[in-house]
Amino acid sequence: MKAVLILGLMIFGITAVELESGVPILLKEIKAIKTEHTEFTFLLDLELSQGGKVSEVVSLVGDLLEQMKRDQLNDDLEYAHRTTTLGLDIEWLIIVLRNLTKERQDKNNQLSELNQILVGLQQQLDALTEQLNILNGKEEQLRQTRAQEAASYQARQENNSKVLAALNEIIPKLQVAVFDQEGKSLLQTEQFEIVEKIKRELGHNHPIAIMVALTTKFDVPTVKRIIDKLDHIRNAVIALMQQEDEQETQSQITFQTVLQEIAELRERFSKDFEITSQLIKKRTNDKVLLEKRLTIINRDLSLTEQLLIQTREYKEQYDAAYAVRKGKRISEIKTVQQAYDLVENHAKKHKQ
């Protein structure tokens, strides 16, 4: 009602007291207007009672009425624009909130799946590590066993070689002794030398050494039998050495074959281990990025929820303020309209 107050100040400056015809009745009608805006009717009454011309009052009130209607229209347009914008903002925030909520759910599902994948990959890595350790242990044990077998083979062959060498030395001597003493018994000294040689080369507890030592009659036929047995033993030793060589060769082949299999398995497991390790590294990086994104989403969700609440509250406050402002202005317009209708009708009647 600022314009009304300005109008009142203008009217207050009028000093004429002569009233136009019918104004007293008009003043009664104006005072009869039921309104809360008594300052306006008071000023209007003051203007007319001071001798103001009705035609001028009609013009002033008419201008005031039009200005108030324009103000209300502008306010309505501003409110429509602002409330539409706020409504769109709220709808957009709801969409953003819905999208963020869905994305968070999707990311949480992805994180859960990723954790399961990482658990599975870690189990694979642990199994591969165990397999590699088993292979390494198996290879170590295999090498130790092979080394022991090779040492045992070497010891046996050395012993067999010594036995064979001894037999190769003893048998010719016995054959020479038999040839020289054909039909005779060997001297006790010769028997002793042969026994000592056998014991020295074959060992004191060797069956041949014991047999020769216990032989009471050391004649040519007996020595020949001993030579036959020694020759048989020599052939057995030669065969045994050949068998030992063959077994050693086969053991070496088997050893190399198993080593090759272990090496192939180790290479395959090592490749799988490397691939699995890289997958774990990649999935771990994916998890870090996913967790960072979830942190951002949760932050954005919180901010969006706060902004949505604030925007809704602001719109409610804006709507309430507009409703109050509009209600007041409509009431003012109604009052001014009633006054305008009275003075305009009065002016028309007295103009005729």
TrEMBL record:
Residues 1-16 form the signal peptide. Keywords: Coiled coil, Signal. Residues 97-145 form a coiled coil. The keyword Coiled coil applies. It comes from the Eukaryota. This is Uncharacterized protein.
